[in-house]
Design a protein that fits this description.
By secondary structure, the chain is an alpha+beta fold. It is built from four helices and four strands; from the N terminus they run H-H-H-H-E-E-E-E. It is 50% helix and 15% strand. It has a four-stranded antiparallel sheet, with helices on one face. A hairpin with a 4-residue loop joins strand 3 and strand 4. It starts with a helix and ends with a strand. Keywords: Signal.
Length: 131
């Protein structure tokens, strides 16, 4: 029985290895979810836990402190007003102009509704809101 769990957990991690190269948080979430699921629910729990963990792992992956510090130190530009609330994990409108973060091209920022927001420049998804 333990061998089956180990094989299934390894297979689950193997299936996510391609996505893992794209997002570090996915691997951490998938691995943790698969292990927890295997302990609680056996092989089926490992598969379900891996999927749930991957989703949770990609939802919350805060930027490095150097990115946050860079954004905090930039002069305040004109704020863009959007009707929707700004929240982590939610996209901002694609017409909002983003400023790149030179230290890490995985992130960009904008001033939206008088808040500095760090976003994924490819998806416009909010990664962090700086108060």
């Amino acid at each position: 029985m333990k061998t089956k769990i180990m094989i299934l957990a390894a297979a689950t991690l193997g299936m996510t290895s391609t996505a893992a190269l794209a997002q570090e948080g996915t691997v951490t979430g998938a691995a943790g979810g698969a292990v927890t699921g295997a302990i609680v629910g056996g092989p089926v729990g490992a598969a379900v836990g891996g999927v749930v963990g991957a989703i949770a792992g990609t939802a919350v992956d805060p930027p490095p402190q150097r990115v946050v510090t860079y954004v905090q130190q930039q002069p305040v530009a004109q704020s863009v007003v959007v009707q929707q609330p700004v929240a982590i994990g939610k996209p901002i409108p694609s017409d909002v102009v983003l400023a790149p973060v030179p230290e890490d091209n995985r992130y960009a920022y904008a001033i939206v509704n008088n808040q500095r927001v760090i976003v994924d420049p490819q998806t416009h998804t909010v990664v962090q809101v700086i108060q």
